[in-house]
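Closing statement on the CA2 sub-project.
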Amino acid sequence: MKIAIINGPNLNLLGKRQPEIYGGQSFEEYLSKLRASFSHLEISYFQSNIEGELVNALHQAAEDSDGIILNPAAFTHTSVALGDAVKSLNCPLIEVHISNIFQREEFRHFSYVSSGAKAVISGMGLRSYELALRYFLPA
Ligand code: CA2
């Protein structure tokens, strides 16, 4: 089974800045652990700081993958384009957030993506991704 993980803007800084919010590990480090633990899944990874590239990546992932895990980062709260793209997909998508967006500033409480997502996981640190991957395992 193929799963695409797509991360939005600034998540390339994981492990480098603001460890008190986002932890001290880079996503690449965490990804190798995920790939080792879920070796029967084929996990692709894409990160971009550019909204249109994320839209393109979602379209491509829907063609190539059986499921998508998306952390839209700040675009969660601003992007009609990402919200529309997510609603147009024909494969299940889980929205994840490292921090609990509902414990943070009010502008982070709204997501353009959630209404098109199968589920939302927020506030479990990087484990949010692992929990999302588990959804794609056979019950
Ligand atoms: O908690 C999350 O995963 C967020 O999607 C992260 C976004 C934020 O805008 C959302 O409200 C919640 C921010 C990603 C920024 O990532 C950084 C990582 C390390 C250092 C600085 C920024």
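The chain has a mean pLDDT of 96. With this model delivered, the sub-project is considered complete and its resources will be redirected to Aim 3.
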